[in-house]
C-alpha cells in the first residue's frame, strides 16, 4: 500500500503498522522524545504495535530540535 | 537544587523563587534552545545561564541527525518546555501541543501561534482560541503574546499559567519597544509575566526585570552571540541585577536635579561684604 511518511511517498507491505514504520526509520521502540501522528491524530506509544496503516495514510514522526 | 560549576556565582537570593503553576524555580532565565551551532555550545549556555527550563521545538525526525538535544538538556539538569513554533493556526498549534505532550511527557507548553511570517507577531484571535482549548485539555499553557495588556489579561482569564509578552519581534534584538505597555501588563497580571522575544543583550533583560517581569526567556541573543556562553552569563547577571533593582525600588524620575549633598553647613569662603 502507499503511504506518506514525513512527507515522503513510501510503499509499505500490507498489514504495516506504526511500529513497522518506526523500524524503517531506525527508531528503537524505547527511543525517547518521539511522537507519531497518523492522519493528524496522535498515536500514543502504547498503540504503535496495534495501529495498522491503510492505503493513503499520512504518518508524521517527530522529535525534539532546538527552538525558542 | 543543582550545584553549578564553582566558577559560576550563586543566584542573588535563594529564597526569591519563580513560581509557575505550582512549580518553583531558582532561575528567572528560561533558555530558548534555537540557533545554537552545536550541542556543546548549548550545554555551555545552559550552565552559564543557570537555566532550569529550556524550550524545544518539534520537527520531523531526521534519522541522519546525530545525538538528541534531550540528552544535552538532561545532562544539564534542565526541564523541557515544548513550543509550538511554526504554527499559524489554532488547529495546528493544538495538534502540535498534543504531539509534544506525547513526545516529552509534559503538559507544559509554550504556545505560539504566529500571524505573519515577516514579523512573527502572534495572531491574537488564533492564540486565544488555541489557549482556551489547550487549557481545557489540561495543558499548562504559557502563551507567547504581544505587548497588549488587554490580550494578556484575556489569556490570564482563560487560565494560562503565565503570560509571555514580547519586547520586540522574535530574533530582532530590538529590546523592549514599549516599556509602558509592559508595565501595565505587569500591573494587571496575577500570573507570572515572562518577557519573551526581543532581548538583544544583558541590559534588555535587566530592564524587563526592573519593570517587574518575573522572568525572561531568551534564545537568539544568546545562541547567536559571538560568544554564546559569555552572553548567557551576561544575560543571567542582567536578570539578577534587574530583579534586585526591582525589589530595591528605583528613585522617581524628575525633571530637575536634587542635590545629594546637603547645603546646610556650607562654609562661607567668599569675600566678606
Characterise the protein shown here.
The complex is a heterodimer of chains A (68) and B (273). Chain A is mainly beta and 68 residues long. Chain A has a single domain, classed as Ubiquitin-like (UB roll), CATH 3.10.20. Chain A is built from one helix and five strands. Helices cover 37% and strands 15% of the residues of chain B. The longest helix of chain B has 21 residues. Chains A and B meet through strand 3 and strand 5 of A and strand 4 and helix 3 of B.
What Rg of chain B do the Cα atoms give? 21 Å
Helix/strand order of chain A, N-terminal first: EEHEEE
Terminal Cα separation of chain A, in Å? 38 Å
Structure summary, number of beta strands of chain A = 5
CATH topology of chain A, which one?
Ubiquitin-like (UB roll)
| Coarse shape of chain A | globular
The domain count of chain A comes to 1
User: Which stretches of chain A are low in confidence, meaning pLDDT under 50 for 5 or more residues running?
Assistant: none
Characterize the largest beta sheet of chain A: strand count, sense, and whether it forms a barrel.
Answer: 5 strands, mixed
Overall pLDDT confidence of chain A: 92
* Physical arrangement of strands within the biggest beta sheet of chain B: 5-4-3-10-9
The counted number of beta strands of chain B is 10
Specify the CATH architecture of chain A: Roll
Mean pLDDT of chain B: 93
> Mind telling me the CATH superfamily name of chain A?
Beta-grasp domain
How much strand content do the residues of chain B show?
15-25%
Amino acid at each position: 500500500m502507499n503511504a506518506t511518511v514525513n512527507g515522503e511517498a513510501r510503499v509499505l507491505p500490507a498489514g504495516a503498522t506504526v511500529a513497522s514504520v518506526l523500524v524503517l526509520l531506525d527508531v528503537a521502540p524505547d527511543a525517547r522524545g518521539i511522537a507519531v501522528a497518523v492522519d493528524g491524530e496522535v498515536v500514543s506509544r502504547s498503540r504503535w504495535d496495534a495501529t495498522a496503516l491503510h492505503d493513503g495514510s499520512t504518518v508524521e514522526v517527530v522529535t525534539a530540535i532546538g527552538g525558542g | 537544587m543543582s550545584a553549578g560549576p564553582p566558577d559560576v556565582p550563586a543566584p542573588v537570593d535563594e529564597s526569591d523563587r519563580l513560581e509557575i503553576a505550582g512549580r518553583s524555580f531558582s532561575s528567572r532565565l528560561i533558555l530558548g534552545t534555537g540557533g545554537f551551532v552545536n550541542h556543546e555550545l548549548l550545554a555551555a549556555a545552559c550552565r552559564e545561564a543557570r537555566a532550569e527550563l529550556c524550550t524545544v521545538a518539534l520537527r520531523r525526525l531526521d534519522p541522519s541527525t546525530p545525538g538528541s538535544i534531550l540528552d544535552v538538556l538532561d545532562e544539564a539538569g534542565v526541564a523541557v518546555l515544548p513550543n509550538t513554533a511554526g504554527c499559524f493556526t489554532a488547529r495546528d498549534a493544538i495538534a502540535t501541543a498534543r504531539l509534544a505532550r506525547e513526545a516529552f511527557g509534559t503538559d507544559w507548553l509554550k504556545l505560539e501561534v504566529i500571524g505573519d511570517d515577516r514579523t512573527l507577531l502572534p495572531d491574537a484571535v488564533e492564540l486565544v482560541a488555541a489557549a482556551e482549548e489547550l487549557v481545557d485539555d489540561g495543558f499548562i499553557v504559557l502563551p507567547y503574546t504581544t505587548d497588549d495588556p488587554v490580550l494578556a489579561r484575556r489569556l490570564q482569564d482563560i487560565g494560562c499559567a503565565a503570560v509571555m509578552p514580547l519586547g520586540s519581534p522574535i530574533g530582532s534584538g530590538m529590546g523592549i519597544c514599549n516599556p509602558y505597555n509592559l508595565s501595565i501588563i505587569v500591573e494587571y497580571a496575577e500570573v507570572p509575566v515572562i518577557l519573551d522575544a526581543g532581548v538583544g543583550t544583558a541590559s534588555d533583560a535587566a530592564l524587563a526585570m526592573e519593570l517587574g517581569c518575573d522572568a525572561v526567556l531568551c534564545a537568539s541573543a544568546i545562541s547567536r552571540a559571538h560568544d554564546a556562553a559569555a552572553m548567557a552569563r551576561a544575560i543571567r547577571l542582567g536578570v539578577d541585577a534587574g530583579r534586585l533593582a526591582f525589589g530595591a525600588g528605583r528613585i522617581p524620575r524628575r525633571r530637575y536635579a536634587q542635590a545629594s549633598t546637603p547645603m546646610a553647613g556650607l562654609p562661607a569662603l567668599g569675600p566678606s561684604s
